[in-house]
Amino acid sequence: MRIPLIAGNWKMNLGIAEGVVLSQNICNNFDKSWLDRVDVLVCPPAIGLRPCLTVFEFERLKVQVGAQNVHWQPQGAYTGELSCDMLASAGCTAVIVGHSERRNLFGETNEQVNLKLRAVLAQGMTPIACVGESLAVREGHDPVEYVCAQVDAALAGIDEAEAARCVIAYEPVWAIGTGRTATPEQAQQMCAAIRALVADRFGSDVAEQVRVLYGGSVNVGNIDALIVQPDIDGALVGGASLEASSFLALIKACASHAGAGGTR
Ligand SMILES: O=C(CO)COP(=O)(O)O
C-alpha cells in the first residue's frame, strides 16, 4: 500500500533566510493530522537543507528535506558537487535525480541518472527519479515508449527491494513552469504505463509499492483531479511550493483524498 507524497522542489529559489521563513510559515499553518495520510518533503537549494530541517525539527513536524541533485562518487576532485554522504549528514532523506532541467540545461544523461539513483539508494535515501517527454516527443513520437525507456534506464542494475524504495516523478517537460498541466487522463495513462513497466521488470508486489508522482504546473485548482487517479501517488511541485498557503493547500487536498490510514 502506498502513502501519497507531496514534494516541493524549490529549484534555485529562496536563500537561507527566505527558506527558513517559508519553512516556519509551513509549520505555523500545518494540521499535524495530515501526516497520518500524506508524506511531505521540501527540496530547498543545498545550502538551505540543514537550516530548513532545523525549523521542522524544532516544531516537531515530520516534514522531510531532500536535495535537488547529487554526485554519485563518494568524494574526490569534483568541484562544486556534493556527495550522498554529505547530503545525508545535512539530514537529507531524499534526492531528486534526473530532473528535466538538469537533463536539458546541464546535459545529464540516462546513464548519469542511473549512477545517481544507485548512489542515493546505497546511502539509504530515497531517490525521486524524474522522467518526462518534450512537446516534440509528445506530438511526433510515442511519449509512453520514450518515458518508459527513461524509467528503464534510471532503474537499471538495481534489485527488487531497491526498486520498491524508489519514487518516480512523471513531469512532462511541456507542463513544467508553463501553467499548462497534463490532463488527469494523460497523467494517469503515463503513470499507469510506468507502474506496468516496474511490474514487468521487478514484479507486481514492487509495482504496488513504488510511488509514482505527477509534476508540471500542479496547483490548488488541479490537484484534486490528479490525486484521485489510481496510479498517481502525489505530486512534485515547483512554483506552488514557494508559498506556504499554496503548498499547504496541496497537502490538505492530498490528505483529504487519501484512503483510510493514508494508503491507496
Ligand atoms: O519541475 C517541477 C517540479 O520538479 C514542476 O514545476 P512547476 O510546478 O513550477 O511547473
Automatic annotation (TrEMBL):
Give the EC number(s) listed in the UniProt record.
5.3.1.1
Quote the subcellular location field of this record.
Answer: Cytoplasm
Tell me, which GO biological process terms does this entry list? gluconeogenesis; glyceraldehyde-3-phosphate biosynthetic process; glycerol catabolic process; glycolytic process
Name the domain of life: Bacteria
Q: Does the keyword Glycoprotein apply?
A: no
Q: Which CDD domains match?
A: TIM (cd00311)
Query: What does the subunit section of this Swiss-Prot or TrEMBL entry state?
Result: Homodimer.
Report the family membership. Belongs to the triosephosphate isomerase family.
Q: What is this protein called?
A: Triosephosphate isomerase
The coding gene here is: tpiA
